[in-house]
Design brief:
It is a single chain. By secondary structure, the protein is α/β, with parallel strands linked by helices. It has one domain (10-302): Spore Coat Polysaccharide Biosynthesis Protein SpsA, Chain A, CATH 3.90.550. Helices cover 39% and strands 16% of the residues. The protein has 11 helices and 10 strands. The protein has helices at residues 18-31, 50-59, 80-95, 112-122, 163-166, 176-181, 184-189, 192-206, 214-223, 276-287, 290-302; strands at residues 10-14, 35-40, 69-74, 98-103, 106-108, 129-133, 148-151, 159-162, 227-231, 236-238. The strands form 2 sheets. An 8-stranded mixed β-sheet has the order 3-2-1-4-8-6-9-7, sandwiched between helices. β1 (10-14), α1 (18-31) and β2 form a beta-alpha-beta unit. α1 (18-31) packs parallel to α2 (50-59).
């Protein structure tokens, strides 16, 4: 797919890692999007040398050498993950109706871009679908003969969505207390252990004890009974697991995962029903804490 050039705008979220930014930029450069929207956070005042790192990351964008409208939204000071990415994506969808979204540590296979573009068009007016992911965390387990399946989870290491879906996003999660008190999470998840896990996460996010934006997106999608599209092979590798990373500083089997190109033409599912088996596997390996997760990691690493 190296000679494929798309028409979908790409939103690129960067911060202070010029090396990974450059690698992801080169992947974007290969497909020559006609519009590149760049969102950058500013340096933290208490981190020595971070100002220079932020400038170096932003200088990567100056390498655009194809016909492309580049528009930037750069913060002068550090806003933090929660505010910077949520406000940045608000800005993105004030400018475009749909976009492919990459962070500075999410390295896509070339087939990721046409995969997203085709499905953005196919499900553009289908309110059941909230996003398209490039991630597959099934570790080789094939979920049917189709090119993708539907999930209740919102993996965002390379993804795409529409303005019509993003307008449902609420960074403050104002409806969380109502959902919690009404025990609506059990109706969504159907499993008490999962409810306990996500209740703890959503409590901390709602109280702003976790500086993040993506849990709010998951919650916003669940409020709409929305589905995500997941490819049947992994199309994006997270290359950002490092000691200086904001959220991915620990060793993980999800670090630097291999990518497997999707095949075209895409094979579309005949119906829109989430894959409960795939979601259960994801919940018990990617999300669940404690002993169960450690055992799952050991199995995935050495199987």
């Amino acid at each position: 797919m190296s000679d494929w050039y798309g028409t979908t705008p790409v939103a690129f979220l960067i911060f202070n890692r010029p090396e990974t930014t450059a690698r992801v930029f080169e992947a974007i450069r290969r497909v020559r999007p006609p519009k590149l929207l760049v969102v950058a956070d500013g340096p933290r005042s208490d981190r020595e040398g971070e100002n220079e790192k932020c400038r170096a990351a932003r200088s990567v964008i100056e390498r655009v050498d194809w016909p492309c409208e580049v528009i930037t939204n750069y913060a002068d000071t550090n806003l933090g993950c929660r505010t910077r990415i949520s406000s940045g994506l608000d800005w993105v969808f004030a400018n475009v109706d749909e976009a492919i979204i990459l962070e500075d540590d999410c390295l896509p296979d070339p087939s990721f871009f046409p995969f997203c573009e085709e499905l953005l068009a196919r499900y553009r007016d289908d309110d059941r679908i909230m996003m398209i992911s490039g991630d597959n965390f099934q570790f080789g387990r094939r979920r049917g003969p189709q090119s993708y399946y539907f999930s209740q989870y919102t993996h965002i290491w390379g993804w795409a969505t529409w303005k019509r879906a993003w307008r449902r996003y609420d960074v403050g999660m104002k409806l969380w207390p109502t959902v919690r008190e009404g025990e609506w999470l059990f109706d969504i998840l159907g499993d008490r252990r999962s409810v306990t896990y996500w209740t703890n996460i959503f409590d901390r996010v709602h109280q702003e004890k976790i500086n993040t934006w993506d849990c709010q997106w998951m919650f916003s999608c669940w409020l709409e009974s929305g589905l995500s599209i997941m490819p049947c092979t992994n199309l994006v590798s997270n290359i950002g697991f490092a000691s200086d990373a904001t959220h991915t500083s620990r060793r993980s089997p999800f670090s630097n995962m291999a990518v497997v190109p999707t095949r075209f033409p895409l094979q579309h599912p005949s119906f829109v029903i989430r894959d409960a088996k795939a979601d259960s596997f994801t919940q018990h390996t990617h999300y669940h804490p404690g002993r169960l997760r450690r055992l799952a990691y050991r199995f995935l690493r050495f199987r």
